[in-house]
Every structure is written in structure tokens, then in C-alpha cells.
Specification:
Layout lengths: L2 H9 L2 H13 L2 H8 L3 H15 L4 E4 L2 E4 L1 H28 L4 E7 L5 H13 L3 E7 L2 H9 L5 E4 L10 E9 L1 E5 L1 H7 L13 E4 L5 H12 L9 E2 L3 H9 L4 E6 H10 L3 E2 L8 E9 L6 H21 L3
Parallel strand pairs: 3-4, 3-5, 8-9, 8-10
Antiparallel strand pairs: 1-2, 5-12, 6-12, 7-10, 7-11
Helix pairs in contact: 2-3, 2-4, 2-5, 3-4, 6-12
Protein name: HTH lysR-type domain-containing protein
GO molecular function: DNA-binding transcription factor activity; transcription cis-regulatory region binding
Pfam family, one: HTH_1
């Protein structure tokens, strides 16, 4: 490390970061001191120490209270990142003290098979000896957590290229779409060659309008000179889709094929015999750009791919 940088690091203390964040969050030295449980004079002294290290004011007083300067905003971003790293380290230390190899903070989108996710988590805990914190959400929500260093990696679909700056990703597997319905509706439709026009009057549960799945399905209807379906419910929750379709024999939805296999395995929802000739966006593992991926990420990726292949092979058995 450069000598000047080393001297800079040696002068900084963790309490400096906590004070900066508290002042920014509360917009007041008095309220920040109360929140940290220290006197106002102690907080003011700590702030003076930090500003002396940076060689410039980090906050300015305005009619709206105390607000960060441009340099202060940079210091805050680094402070938050550092404290998030400390929190990650603390969880890893706890995990290793409890006999685990490490701890993985994992974000997963709803498009993953729940059976695949459960088996993967079981494998990581029982065979790889990891402990995990699992976050569920859409890609946008999880990438925000990734950039805030609240998760180590995300398993999901890729966002637009401009949302991938500073991130790395690799392909895990492709997903096919499948149409699912109540078993009674599937039985009625199964008596003939099912076509999209047969589903025009169905009650649809669909993903949000700006999702690739919804857009591709709409294109498929238009290609067949049909009006795209107007859903009665818009959701990406596989739990909601399964529950609603299982209780209504006029409902139809579109989900990844491996999620449809989950439904079919539980016997409450059937897959329609209408194969769409296109693929859904692929599933990737997304993380911060690093020289080397975390070993836990490598175990996660390998387990997901292996277990999915095994489950697909089992589902293909007559």
C-alpha cells in the first residue's frame, strides 16, 4: 500500500464511520448524538477528527439541517460500504465459530423452482457446510442489495447492460416457458389439439407488463392474430399462481418449465400440452466484479446446475 494511503487508513477508526452515517441519517448533530448514545460534544469532537483527516468539511449547515458536502457524500458511500463489509465479516466469523466453512448472503428471484432452491440450500448446508441468509425479490430489488453489499450474489435474470456496470455474471441454465392451468381445464383442453385461441377467454395470471415473459407471450398472441390476454392478476409469485389456479378451473398462467414441474409434482396444477417455441431469459449468477469468485459462489453455482440436471432427468422419466 502507498505510504500516504497507509497513513490515511491508520488514522481512521470505525467510530468515525458510524458518526458520519448517523449525522447524515438524522440531519442533526444533536439527534445523531442521541441515536449513538454519546454526548453532543463527543460527537462534535469525532467529526472534527474525521474532517481533519480528510482536510475539508464533510457537512454544511443549511436551513434544512446538516447536509453532506460533495466530499462528505463520497466519505459516506465508503463508510457504508466498509460497515457492510464488517457486518459480512462478523457473520462469517459467527458461521466459522459454529463449525461452518463460511456464510453466504444469497439473493434469489421468484423464477427459480422452489424444489431446486430447497435442494440446493440443503446441499450447501449439509454437504458443503455453509450457513446462509436467503433474500427473495425481483432482479431490480436484489441488484440494489448487491450494490449495497447486503448480499454476496444474486441468482436471477440479467438486467439491461447499463445495470451491470461493476458487476460480473455467468450463465447457469436456460429456462423454457410452460402454460399451466387447473387439472380440470387441462383435461377439457386435452381432448383436442390445444392452440392459443383456445385460451383467449381464459382468466389469466401474468407477470408485470414490462417483464420479458409478458412481452414474449403478447408477441406470441399477436403472431397468431389474437389479442393479448388482459390478466385479472399480475404477479410473479409462484405461490400465488399455484394457489389461485388450484382453486379456479378457468385460470391459466405462464411460468418457467421447472416451476411448472414443481406444481405438477404437488398434483394441484397441470401443464397444458402447448409448447411455446421460444426461451425465457436465462438464469445467471450475478456478483460484484472480483479477481476471483467467492468459493461459496462456486459451490452454489455447481450445486444449482447439477441438481437441476438431475431433477430434469427425473421429470423426463415416463
Amino acid at each position: 500500500m502507498d505510504p500516504s494511503a497507509l497513513n490515511f487508513v491508520r488514522r481512521l477508526k470505525i467510530r468515525h464511520f458510524s458518526v458520519l452515517i448517523a449525522i447524515a441519517e438524522h440531519g442533526s448533530v444533536t439527534r445523531a448524538a442521541d441515536a449513538l448514545g454519546i454526548s453532543q460534544s463527543a460527537l462534535t469532537q469525532t467529526l472534527a477528527e474525521v474532517e481533519n483527516i480528510f482536510g475539508s468539511p464533510l457537512f454544511s449547515r443549511t436551513s434544512r439541517g446538516v447536509v453532506p458536502t460533495e466530499l462528505g457524500n463520497m466519505a459516506l458511500a465508503r463508510s457504508r460500504r466498509f460497515l457492510q463489509d464488517v457486518e459480512f465479516w462478523e457473520r462469517e466469523v459467527q458461521a466459522m465459530s459454529s463449525g461452518y466453512r463460511t456464510h453466504l448472503n444469497l439473493g434469489v428471484v421468484p423464477h427459480l423452482s422452489s424444489a431446486l432452491l430447497a435442494r440446493t440450500v440443503r446441499t450447501l448446508v449439509q454437504q458443503v457446510n455453509l450457513s446462509l441468509t436467503l433474500h427473495r425479490g425481483n432482479t431490480r430489488q436484489l441488484l440494489k442489495l448487491l450494490r449495497e453489499r447486503k448480499v454476496d450474489c444474486v441468482v436471477g435474470r440479467l438486467p439491461p447492460d447499463d445495470d451491470l456496470v461493476g458487476l460480473s455474471h455467468r450463465l447457469l441454465y436456460e429456462q423454457r416457458p410452460a402454460l399451466v392451468a387447473h387439472p380440470a381445464l387441462a383435461a377439457r383442453l386435452g381432448k383436442r389439439d390445444v392452440q392459443l385461441k383456445d385460451l383467449s377467454s381464459a382468466r389469466w395470471l401474468l407477470p408485470l407488463p414490462d417483464t420479458p415473459t409478458r412481452q414474449r407471450l403478447n408477441d406470441e398472441f399477436r403472431k397468431h392474430k389474437l389479442v393479448p390476454p388482459a390478466p385479472i392478476i399480475e404477479t410473479e409469485s409462484s405461490e400465488v399462481i399455484e394457489e389461485m389456479i388450484a382453486s379456479d378451473d378457468g385460470m391459466v398462467s405462464i411460468v418457467p418449465e421447472d416451476v411448472a414441474n414443481d406444481f405438477r409434482g404437488r398434483g394441484r396444477v397441470a401443464t397444458l400440452d402447448l409448447r411455446l417455441q421460444w426461451m425465457l431469459p436465462a438464469i445467471h449468477i450475478i456478483s460484484e466484479a472480483r479477481d476471483q469468485p467467492l468459493p461459496a459462489e462456486e459451490h452454489l453455482a455447481a450445486s444449482l446446475v447439477r441438481l437441476r440436471n438431475e431433477m430434469n432427468a427425473a421429470a423426463a422419466q415416463p
